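Listing S7. Sequence submitted for prediction.
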Amino acid sequence: MNITTAFVCFFSASENNTGAAKVSYNFFKQWKNNKKLFQFTSNKKIKKKKYLKNVYLRKENALYKILNLPNIIFHIYQYLKNKKKPILILEGASWIFFSFVIFFVLKFFIKNLKVIYHGHNIEYEVRKNSFLIKKLTFYFEKIIYNKVDIGTVVSKRDKNKISKIYKSKSYVFPNGYYLNDVKIKKINIPKKFILFNGSYGYWPNKIAINKILNIYHPIITKKYKDIHFIFTGNNFPKKFFKTKKTKFFQNLSDQKYKYVLKKSMLLFFPIPKSPGTKVKVIEGLCEGKTIVATKPCFLGIDVLKGDKSCKFTTDKEGLIKLRKAINNSKITNKNKFQYQKKYLLKYSINKLICCNEKVFN
C-alpha cells in the first residue's frame, strides 16, 4: 500500500509505564505499515533503534519542548517527504499546542499528508492550572478537531462532547490492552500488596497518591499487618520512599511491571474527577484483577454485568469498599477470571486496530 507513518509523542513513550505512554506505544507497536516513532525524552540511556528517533531535552518541560519543536519537525519532514502515502499520527497526551504547530508546518510542506490526531482525553478539560492556558487550549483543540483528517476520542461520551463544544466530528477509538509475549521479570516485592500505577506529575494521580498515603495507608496497614502498598510510575518525591510498608518503583520495564501487576491483590485508584478513559483500569480488567476505584475511573469503560468491580464516591465509602475487597480478595479474584477473557476480546489493541484499519489508512 506504500504507506509510511510517523508517530509523534511529546514525551518518552518507549521507556515508560504510565497510561499515556502505554496507549501510545501499544498503538505504535501494533501498526502494520512502515513506521517510525519520534519522541521527546531526557533519557539518554534509551537504546538507538531503527524505528525510533529520540529528540533529547535537557529537561522534560513545556519550555524545552517548545524550543525543540523545529528539531523534531525537521526529522519528521525528512522521514515523510516524497512518500506516496505519508501519514502523521499525533499523540494527544501532551499540551495540544505542540500538535497544533507540527500539524500546520508539516501540512504546509507535505501537501499529500494525512493527519490523525489520536486523542487521549478532551485536552480542554485537563488544563486547569491557568485561565490563559485553558483558553488557548480550547482554541487549539477546536482547530485541530476541525482541520485534521481524523480526530479520535476514547469514548462515546467524549465524542458527544467534542461535537457539542467544537461542532466537530470525531471517531471513537477506545484505549486498548496489548497482549504481548514478553517474558516476565521477577523483582523483590511483598507477598500481599495493593497496587497503584500512575505518574505523580499528572495532577489527578498526585491527588490520589497523596490521599492513599495520608488517609488509606495508615488505616489499612494498621488493620492488616501483612499488607503493603506499591506505587509504580515516575516523578515520585524522594520523601515518599521513607514511608513504611510501601514500595515506589520508577519507570519499571514492561516485563517487571507485568510481574508486579500479576502478583497484586487488587488495584486501588481513589482518583478525583478527571477526563479520559483510564488504561490502568482496562489493564486490570484484562488481567482479571479486582479494582476498587472512584466512579470517574470507569468513565467510557463498559463494565460487564455481574463484574463486581467496586466503585465509590467518598473517601469513607472508599475505605469500606477497600476493606471489603481485601477480605474477599481470594473469592473475588477467582470469580473475575470468568470475565477476563471477555474483557480481552473487547479491549485487545490488536483487535481494535484491525477493526479500524480501513478508517486509518
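Caption to Listing S7: primary sequence and predicted C-alpha cells for the chain studied. The radius of gyration is 21 Å. The CA atoms of residues 208 and 271 lie 5 Å apart.
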